[in-house]
Amino acid sequence: MDEQEYTRQRVRMVEWQIKERGIRSQNVLDAFLQVRRHVFVPESFRNRSYEDCPLSIGFNQTVSQPYIVAFMTEMLKPDKTKRVLEIGTGSGYQTAILSCLCKEVYTVEILPVLAEQTEEILKNEGYDNIHLRIGDGYHGWKEAAPFDHIIVTCAPERIPAPLLNQLAEGGTMVIPAGKNNKQELYLIKKDKGKITTKEVLRVIFVPMIHNR
Fold first, then answer.
1. Are strands 55-58 and 61-63 parallel, antiparallel or unpaired?
2. Does 42 map to a domain?
3. How many other CB atoms are found less than 10 A from the CB of residue 116?
4. Per-residue pLDDT, 180
5. Residue 209's pLDDT band (boundaries 50, 70, 90)?
6. 35, 163, 166, 173 - which has most CB atoms within 10 Å?
7. Quick check: is 210 in a domain?
8. Among this protein's residues, is 99 annotated catalytic?
């Protein structure tokens, strides 16, 4: 498949999987038109890059369904003045989307081989406002905190206290949490030091790998 065909499929993905299902932010839609999802997908699945489903990236990990990535991103209400922390770099697709929308992206991946592979792809694609570290995302990135936004792309059983502590005043966090097929996606806000938590959607994400 050539680059022109990938572009055609990407436009169709945005129109029919994302915009048609209620994503309204033009900045978010533009980011999804810009980021080449197929380069973040293993070659064996590349012809399915723009399908409305999650895809395996190896290491028992997946790249999420495009609509879910868009849904979570829009909930953050990102802009070019904001710093965002991503837990679970994975393939780097969500990272690239955030790079287009935020001032700086801090992203944590626990699997060294995956992190190194993804970092190379992100650099090759020209995303230069991303800071990637290998580590346990449960603990966040304390040295760089606080963050205007936090987005988590793997599911802990409970919302990690370190991430709540690293959320800036007025900040938002989007995170799946729960066990196996009983996960919920939560929208969390911090206002005047008070945390509010709202259940948004039933989801299924890969479990968070956490070194206790």
1. antiparallel
2. no
3. 12
4. 74
5. confident
6. 173
7. no
8. no
Using CA atoms, how far apart are residues 53 and 17, in angstroms rounded to an integer? 10
Q: Are 115 and 87 in contact (CB under 8 A)?
A: no
- CA angle 151–155–158, rounded 5-degree value: 100
Taking only the tens place, the pLDDT of each residue in 64-75 is: 999 999 999 999
Q: Does residue 51 lie within any of the structural domains?
A: no
Count of domains for the chain: 1
pTM: 0.96
Q: Are 202 and 151 in contact (CB under 8 A)?
A: no
C-beta of residue 162 within 8 angstroms of C-beta of residue 140: yes
What is the domain extent for residue 136? Answer: 59-203
Q: Residue for token digits 């304390």?
A: 142
**CA Rg value for the chain:** 16
Cβ atoms of 134 and 112 closer than 8 Å: yes
Task: Give the end-to-end CA distance of the chain in Å, rounded to a whole number.
Answer: 44
145-165 tens-digit pLDDT: 999 999 999 999 999 999 999
Q: Which of 25, 49, 64, 91 is catalytic?
A: 64
Give the pLDDT of residue 212.
60
When the pLDDT of each residue in the chain is averaged and rounded to a whole number, the result is: 95
Per the structure block, which two tokens stand in for 173? 């966090």
Tell whether 211 is covered by a domain: no
Q: Are 105 and 32 in contact (CB under 8 A)?
A: no
Q: What is the CATH number of the domain that holds 138?
A: 3.40.50.150
